[in-house]
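note to self: the first set is below, dont mix up w the second
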Amino acid sequence: MKKALFLLSAVLLIAVMAIPVLAEFPLEDFTIPDTGVHFAFNGDAKDEFGNVTGELVGDPTFVEGRDGTANGAVYLDDDTQYIFIGKYVDAESYTAIFWCKVEDNNEHVFLCSSMLGSIRIIHDDGVHVGSTINGVVDNISDYEAPRDEWVMLAFVYADENMDIYANGEYATSLSGALPLPFTLIGNEAAEQKGWQKYPFLTLDDAWFYGRAFSADEVKAMYTETGGTAAASSGGDINDGAVEVRGEYRFYEEQPEIKGECLVDVNSDMDEISGYRGEIGTDLFNLSSGGNGYCVKRDTCVWYDFEAPADGTYLFMIDYIARTGAERGVDWALDDPDGTNRHFIDLWETDVNGYVVSTFETTKGPHSFYVYAPTDMDDSTLKSCDTYWVYVYYIPDGLAAALPVVETPTAPEGYPASGESGSIMIGKVIGNETGWDGTEASGAASAFDGKAATFFDPLGVGDGFCGMEYDEPYILEKVAILSRSGWLDRFAGATIEGSNDGEEWEELWCSDDVAPSETEYNIVTEFENNYGYKMYRYVNYTNHGDVAEVEFYGKPGTAERPAKEEEPAPAEEPKAEEPTAQEVVEQAADAVGEAVGEVAENVSEAAQDAAEAVSEAASDAAKKAGCGSFIGGGLIVLVTVLGSAWIAKRH
């Protein structure tokens, strides 16, 4: 027995010695500080807090970041490229967050990895996000990250469970014990497991924390770092965009782009470089002088241009996408077959709207294609009317190319209440001048931080003071200081919200007078608090003087509860319908009654006639001397004849 065990051990030793030895990376123990670790990838791989410096391996390139910052993101497109961190983190819980964009790829793509496991934006199935615990399990989730589009992925690990969030919203969960993979970022390496691939991955920011975030913290991270909820006015770039959806920025008015204009082409057939589709069948000129076109199925137009250098380029499409109609457009670069098209779900507008985005390309000749959208029904005729297409070279990035809209700033000393929370600073709206016709009593005086100044409306319910914001806000608190000497005018004070300045909803109303000349009235409970771009103070009961108003809140909206449908009124019980036999019997009874009445009337008439004849006969008989005999005979005769006539009528 001992001899057999010895021989088996020898065989196993030889087998192990025959396995190729991988040179593992040297790792240092590391504890993530309370601040966390943040790689912004703005031209380097340094932690913004100075705790760690990553090593760029394989010469990855830096490209424009998601906010338009030049060299604000790192792009990995080779199997030798990764970012070496080289740390071992022994944490029972952690949070790893990535702003990332992956191209359409059927290979696995790593976000971070170690000898113990990895987190992947694309797992081995070539589709879904997942993780691997080396030697134990490949966890493939049911969530698929978007392709060619920025997304914030958060991985929150605790108690051998990993919750995955996409753009601040919970997506799915994976189970299993996985220590934080903090050796490499962006790829694998031959020195580790040798599973590296061509990732075609762009990373803008990556954060690592030594604790598990709550769902609210993940949502806040998303909004605070440029997510759509915080970026409906343009994210980190305040350029007047009415909405931002991923990489696409939408405008109601044409933005003035700073860059070298390479394409400025009307979609008239005389100006475009080329088209595919039969004019009048699949490709339609509009009636307005031939400007613009409407496409369906696989038709397209394209615009040729000469790129002056490698770098970032901007395109802008002037369009109409009618409210309520199917709308959208596809675009592509150097793609005549339409195999790599990008769909834009256009912002609704019945007048001209503008969509802006960017692409990277190389120096030389190129063609910009506009297609009928692949995500639309083939029968859709008016999916998008495109009027003008622009292409710009923007060497300094998107942020430098877009216009700058001044952000409203609060006057010095405002807010003055001393309340905690996020003050909402916007554009003052309401009456520019007040009751005395001067600006000193206008709406701005309620937002200047001075207790001695005040807004004085024109009359009861006539005038208001408020603020307008570039995006909807949820109210968390309002601080109100009444005008000194007029505390009774606080009764009826009302806070309202609106998104269009026309329809206003009441969130709060005061039933009482103000309790103090110097203390702010703090309101924290509201109705209809669904998120609005405008808030105002108004009074429909008293002359609504007010010294100061402060709005506190956070960007976002809340879902309105579904309206309960009123129950339909109960139907009154219906009388039972008679049977056919009953109908016949009722009809017969009615006829019998009618005939009886006729007979009775006839009989009475006959009796009356008989009596009249009898009287006449009696008189005649008296004169002739034989009245009784003749009169009686006539009565009998008339009665018999009358009865016979009645019988005949029956």
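second set (the one i keep forgetting abt)
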Amino acid sequence: MSAFDDLKARYFVLGSSGGSFSSGSSGLPEYAGCEVIPHIGGPDYFRTLKTVIDRSDVAYIYLAGWWLDVNCEMVPGVRLLDLLKARSAAGADVRILGWVMPPDVLNNPIVTSGRVPLADMLRVNENTMRFVAAARAEPKLADKAMLNVLSHPAGAVHTKLALVGGPSGDVGFTGGIDPQQGRNSPAWHDVQAEVRGTAVQPMLDWFRAMWNENQGRSPVTVQANGFPLATRTAGAAPLAARTAGAVTAGTKHVQSGRTVPRMNFSTVGGIGASLAGVSLPQNQPVSWAPTGLTEIRQLWQKGISGARRYVYIEDQAFTSAEIFDWLNSALKANPGLKAVLLIGADDPTAPNPGPMSAGMRKALNEHLLAGISAADISTRVGFFTHKTKVIHTKSTVVDDNWALIGSANMMRRSLYTDMEHSIGFMDEAGSGVAAYRSALWSVHNGPPVLSGLGADLARWLAIPYAGAPGSRPIDRVHLPFTVGATPSAQDQALLDQLMDVDSRDAWGSGLLSLAMTATGAGLSSP
């Protein structure tokens, strides 16, 4: 066994079968001889996507997003929507899947009447519906743009996928960047991975599975903010399989992971909703994964559990107690291991946190830091907030040997409820993951220290704590949190029922009390 094989055994989920809620330790396929190119920031990703779409031999373009924006520009003055319509008119097989909440949510009277505060999600869904409607105006795209309605009622189809192929090769993109114009802002920090080689195959299969599942369901007209659109046209046809080609001399090894939810609904919640004169939103199980898939969880757990030198995570949310448990165990097992965590512009130390922030503080205090001494917290665990940028990335880097890039946030819902896609990768040449880590840290801290990884880690842990004199873009946060680290009963109910749902649990039993709270008839905040 080679040294690289030893590393793969440490960080990769080795095996040949996918993981479900019940499968536990089953493995995931490995794709060797590939290339993975991380693109940091929307402008870099969008320029690259345009270059790939502009290839003269493009045969297909598949796009799946959480938020589709008619005004999103790949470069100034060039909209993605116009590129897709032009390539479709020229004969390419262009397909679009834009997520919206399931019909049971969008058409529910409690939503259409405005009794439930879903303004942000309705705005996102309306934007996506207008993108899909505009795409259907191109005759060759009329039957090839669908609304993706597969999500759990309290979840989303959160995957952000673009696939482009032809005789000159297949390219897949996955990560945190939706085709939305705000992602071009320099204040928006995010990552999208470009994948080439046979690792594009599971990405093609993921898109095809979602397409055909939606195509197999009867069309329904839904509305968001009064804008109506059919989920699909009557002429929408199934998508045939494609085979991704290999690349020459690729050195990356890739594993592809998905999250698919259970559709597990509370009988008590349904009865309670009926008594209140409303209906509990539901959705059909996904036919090819009726008990769900947790492949991303498998990837993440194995990668973190293999850590020896450092774990770096940048994310928009840190509420997963389970992931913090893995990291806590790794810290205890490896005295030299360091953890560096970066979140974005919202103040994580505010004295009166909302549910997400309170949940994050609890997860940090009770799971990441459990049994870790104050001295070790000071020298080995750094939690940082970027004060001028939104950190929207969903990425973990371990030991310069393994990295995860995708749509899954460090949240319970990304492990069990939202439909997600992420890749884990390693480089047999030994430099690819280190180069990615160095590029990320250079964005935040300037060029890397020439003396190596140890000095770069020390530079993170030398960043002053919040409140120290001086002006800087990043502050270190004092740990453990001393205020706001216990969510109220109502905040916990909001997390469990709406904001950070676990689809393994029967969903809906707490919705009625939350609705009553809004009218002063149920639980009250302390």
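remember for set 2: The chain is about 35% helix and 20% strand.
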